[in-house]
């Protein structure tokens, strides 16, 4: 896809700012794998801002760079060039120990594999990161999270005694428990059936609307993206479009347009 074609698709760029400011941002974010002729450019000078207190979805075809963008914003992967900030803290260039502390104290994570400890019950899994860090949870906040996610009667159950949807709700509570500045969710409904997936998406929506959290979700599902406030579309390592107040139908239509342009570009190259 040429830059001219991308410009024809793109809506005008905006700062995505809110009254409460920016949770994370990047300038000129570039990530390359390999070297020489084998170099793969996963992210190509990306500029992005994540508004605090909002739900942002990141979409794109396989290989577009959406998971790489999340990993770089979260400090899980080093960048090749550019700068990344969490709030007012620039995280590019931090040493690994400092990054580990920052991720532990200021970021929550959700993955499609749940990553729960099978020998611990739900309550113990929820507080595990804080227990490891020697931190005491804010009991009032923790109670609010547990009640919002409907886990009160499941706290003594181990993961094997929970459904997939309940396990992902525990993972969501774990991500929320320390009241992080930002929650990153990588395909959080990928291992769930449609009903459980909708349930988890509803809880993420509630985390933003009722608990004031900031969520960034990588997804391939237009229905999941429709729960967000803003969708960022990636193509060939660049943000090529965005959509506020998305619907599943509008997201699907936008993705189809990308496929048409990509197909035309591939035909020209042949």
From TrEMBL:
PROSITE patterns on file: ABC_TRANSPORTER_2 (PS50893)
Gene Ontology MF annotations: ATP binding; ATP hydrolysis activity; transmembrane transporter activity
Pfam families xrefs: ABC_tran
CDD domains: ABC_MJ0796_LolCDE_FtsE
Keyword Nucleotide-binding appears in the UniProt entry: yes
Superkingdom field: Bacteria
InterPro entries (UniProt xref): AAA+_ATPase (IPR003593), ABC_transporter-like_ATP-bd (IPR003439), ABC_transpr_LolD-like (IPR015854), MacB-like_ATP-bd (IPR017911), P-loop_NTPase (IPR027417)
Coiled-coil regions, chain positions: none
GO CC terms in record: membrane protein complex; plasma membrane
Keywords: ATP-binding, Nucleotide-binding, Transport
Domain (ABC transporter): residue spans on this chain: 24-261
PANTHER family assigned: ABC TRANSPORTER RELATED (PTHR24220:SF685), IMPORT ATP-BINDING PROTEIN (PTHR24220)
Protein name: ABC transporter ATP-binding protein
Organism: Streptomyces cupreus
